């Protein structure tokens, strides 16, 4: 009886768990799951060692107290779950928190020197396949049986999100297709394969994963992207606090080998505010002191300018364009349409030389309080509004955030405000979704952008105290 009970307890996580099915699939492909777990354990050890040395420990200690002193409304924040947290125990079998490796990718990793995690990483990264044809990739998609009809629109909207800004296209799969993305609602977490696996690959979506933010993020993994915090140059920007990581999932914070860097990043600068981050309620990642104002800005609600540029570069989206456009204000030729430019925030028009027609312009002549707001409590999906604050030429703008929202959120993923203080608006700004004690923000030109956004039926408002500096 006891042995039966033990057997039952041992097999419980496997039965009914999609990752149990995943482990079965790996077994079927001749992979020893135990070896995989051993490999992940080694990677976890590697992460602990990287951040466990005396220098890192001292820096983490400082960053913990800095976090405690600037942390908004401690203990009263409404928690926002990331994929890593939704995935919980499942993250133990995943790669970077929400990526499911294919049997072939595991084989590539296991064939490498078991003592050399960096070599394994490099082999894994190089095993990522892209969708074809280059320049105009098409991804056939389907839904797993029983996929809820009322959730399909979120999928279609997420696909359209990428179609509108890249050359990636989706079409319903036919029986002739081998490589297919299949949306699976019957899952315990949010996850995706990385790149094209060549057969049916699922994007797993548990109940907490149904938003354009999450689906578009998982889709980008299916395109072939990894997370920014695994970039080889990440140690210049962030530091990982392993004490706040769930035991056994530390390997998800492993760094890519340096020589792979330029291949995976396509020369795009490290962006703390990217959509490809895994921030959590208990900080697992601190921004380094020079970037401390970005602490609450990880995990963008929508792909940023650079996130989008990454996909367009990966798939050589603009290589086919016969014409060359003289894009202004850091715009680049649009991956979705050769006849226009893709504009950084605050710019619009064919050549990014105009302000967006729906932006609210605020001309600042002295000190002024400004309330920014969006949303009316009715579920209208994702809504956004841009305020462009302008001071006289040659002046700068200083903004103090005096109050944020009716509710306080732990992460600014579905609701919040982003302040862009640099003239170069390609870089994501500082996000706010709770009262904070972050020091005033000063622009490097006479313009400041304030972007407010809400998903679902939320309302958001904030008060800013502005002055010319
Ligand atoms: Zn991810």
UniProtKB/TrEMBL annotation:
<dbReference type="InterPro" id="IPR000742">
    <property type="entry name" value="EGF"/>
</dbReference>
<keyword id="KW-0732">Signal</keyword>
<dbReference type="InterPro" id="IPR006026">
    <property type="entry name" value="Peptidase_Metallo"/>
</dbReference>
<protein>
    <recommendedName>
        <fullName>Metalloendopeptidase</fullName>
        <ecNumber>3.4.24.-</ecNumber>
    </recommendedName>
</protein>
<feature type="signal peptide">
    <location>
        <begin position="1"/>
        <end position="16"/>
    </location>
</feature>
<feature type="binding site">
    <location>
        <position position="217"/>
    </location>
    <ligand>
        <name>Zn(2+)</name>
    </ligand>
</feature>
<keyword id="KW-0862">Zinc</keyword>
<keyword id="KW-0245">EGF-like domain</keyword>
<feature type="active site">
    <location>
        <position position="218"/>
    </location>
</feature>
<dbReference type="Pfam" id="PF01400">
    <property type="entry name" value="Astacin"/>
</dbReference>
<dbReference type="InterPro" id="IPR024079">
    <property type="entry name" value="MetalloPept_cat_dom_sf"/>
</dbReference>
<dbReference type="GO" id="GO:0005615">
    <property type="term" value="C:extracellular space"/>
</dbReference>
<keyword id="KW-1015">Disulfide bond</keyword>
<keyword id="KW-0482">Metalloprotease</keyword>
<keyword id="KW-0378">Hydrolase</keyword>
<feature type="binding site">
    <location>
        <position position="221"/>
    </location>
    <ligand>
        <name>Zn(2+)</name>
    </ligand>
</feature>
<dbReference type="InterPro" id="IPR034035">
    <property type="entry name" value="Astacin-like_dom"/>
</dbReference>
<dbReference type="GO" id="GO:0006508">
    <property type="term" value="P:proteolysis"/>
</dbReference>
<keyword id="KW-0479">Metal-binding</keyword>
<dbReference type="GO" id="GO:0008270">
    <property type="term" value="F:zinc ion binding"/>
</dbReference>
<dbReference type="GO" id="GO:0004222">
    <property type="term" value="F:metalloendopeptidase activity"/>
</dbReference>
<dbReference type="InterPro" id="IPR001506">
    <property type="entry name" value="Peptidase_M12A"/>
</dbReference>
<feature type="binding site">
    <location>
        <position position="227"/>
    </location>
    <ligand>
        <name>Zn(2+)</name>
    </ligand>
</feature>
<dbReference type="InterPro" id="IPR035914">
    <property type="entry name" value="Sperma_CUB_dom_sf"/>
</dbReference>
<keyword id="KW-0645">Protease</keyword>
């Amino acid at each position: 009886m006891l042995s039966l009970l033990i057997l039952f307890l041992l097999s419980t996580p496997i039965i009914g768990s999609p990752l149990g099915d995943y482990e079965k699939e790996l077994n079927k492909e001749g992979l020893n799951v135990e070896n995989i777990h051993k490999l992940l354990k080694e990677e976890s050890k590697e992460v602990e060692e990287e951040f466990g040395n005396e220098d890192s420990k001292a820096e983490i200690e400082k960053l913990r107290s800095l976090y405690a002193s600037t942390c908004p409304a401690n203990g009263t924040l409404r928690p926002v779950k990331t994929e890593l947290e939704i995935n919980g125990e499942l993250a133990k079998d995943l790669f970077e928190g929400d990526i499911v490796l294919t049997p072939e990718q595991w084989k590539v990793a296991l064939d490498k020197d078991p003592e050399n995690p960096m070599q394994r990483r490099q082999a894994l990264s190089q095993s990522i396949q892209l969708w074809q044809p280059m320049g105009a990739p098409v991804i056939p998609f389907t839904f797993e049986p029983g996929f809820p009809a009322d959730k399909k629109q979120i999928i279609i909207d997420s696909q359209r999100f990428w179609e509108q800004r890249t050359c990636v296209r989706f079409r319903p799969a036919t029986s002739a297709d081998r490589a297919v993305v299949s949306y699976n609602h019957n899952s315990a977490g949010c996850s995706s394969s990385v790149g094209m696996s060549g057969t049916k690959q699922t994007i797993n979506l548990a109940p907490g994963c149904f938003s354009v933010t999450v689906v578009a993020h998982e889709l980008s993994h299916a395109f072939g992207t990894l997370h920014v915090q695994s970039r080889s140059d990440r140690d210049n920007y962030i530091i990982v606090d392993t004490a706040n990581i769930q035991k056994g999932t530390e390997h998800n914070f492993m760094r890519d080998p340096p020589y792979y860097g330029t291949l995976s990043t396509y020369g795009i600068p490290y962006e703390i505010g990217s959509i490809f981050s895994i921030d959590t309620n208990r900080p697992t990642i601190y921004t380094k002191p020079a970037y401390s104002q970005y602490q609450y800005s990880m995990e963008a609600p929508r792909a940023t300018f650079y996130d989008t540029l990454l996909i367009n570069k990966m798939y050589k989206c603009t290589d086919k364009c016969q014409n060359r456009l003289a894009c202004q204000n850091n715009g680049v030729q649009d991956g979705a349409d050769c006849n226009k430019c893709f504009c950084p925030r605050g710019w619009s028009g064919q050549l990014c030389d105009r302000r967006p027609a729906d932006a609210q312009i605020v001309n600042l002549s002295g000190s002024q309080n400004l309330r920014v707001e969006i949303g009316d409590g009715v579920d209208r999906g994702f809504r956004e509004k841009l305020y462009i604050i302008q001071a006289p030429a040659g002046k700068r703008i200083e903004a103090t955030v005096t109050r944020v929202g009716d509710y306080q959120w732990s992460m600014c993923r579905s609701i919040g405000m982003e302040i862009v203080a640099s003239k170069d608006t390609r870089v994501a700004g500082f996000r706010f979704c709770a009262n904070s004690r972050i020091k005033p923000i000063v622009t490097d030109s006479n313009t400041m952008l304030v972007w407010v956004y809400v998903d679902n039926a939320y309302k958001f408002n904030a008060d800013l105290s502005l002055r010319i500096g």
